[in-house]
Write a structure and sequence with these properties.
It contains one helix and nine strands. It is α+β, with helices and mostly antiparallel strands.
Length: 152
């Protein structure tokens, strides 16, 4: 009787543990381009290294990114500082790719980033992959709608 009780308790513990593993691998935890949809505020800091002189200059950026949920994005506004010189950028566009493991890439005209996306898409973390840059930051969703969409 005691052995039977021990086996039943063991089986119960095992089944609870396995159901947790199954739950962790649900579709809810997978990502795609659709995971990133809406308006985000991106901020990053780091350095750019002049390849000819080796001089390191600080840089920072804050920008609005509108992810369209289909691998395309728009940047309606951005302000950056490189070595203290402020530059307000014209609107631009870019592309992104998100794998089901919530990793991906984001590319603007010039800069490229590796991205790591929260499973529900409320936040992502970015690191620039261009040579001579040490630059990383994050973006947080501020709205599920972009300005071209009805927010209802």
């Amino acid at each position: 009787m005691k052995k039977l009780l021990v086996r039943m308790v063991g089986a119960a513990i095992l089944s609870v543990g396995l159901s947790g593993v199954t739950f962790a691998a649900t579709d809810r935890d997978r990502c795609s381009e659709r995971t990133l949809q809406g308006r985000y505020v991106f901020s990053a800091t780091g350095f750019v290294i002049n390849p000819a002189t080796g001089v390191v200059q600080p840089k920072a950026i804050v920008e609005i990114i509108d992810f369209n949920g289909d691998g395309t994005l728009a940047v309606p506004a951005a302000t950056r500082s490189v070595n203290g010189v402020i530059i307000r950028s014209d609107p631009s566009v870019g592309t992104y790719q998100v794998s089901d493991d919530c990793t991906g890439t984001l590319t603007f005209e010039g800069p490229g980033f590796d991205i790591f996306v929260a499973p529900r898409g409320d936040q992502l973390w970015l690191i620039q992959t261009n040579p001579n840059n040490v630059f990383q930051g994050s973006a947080t969703r501020t709205s599920r709608a972009t300005p071209d969409e009805d927010p209802r």
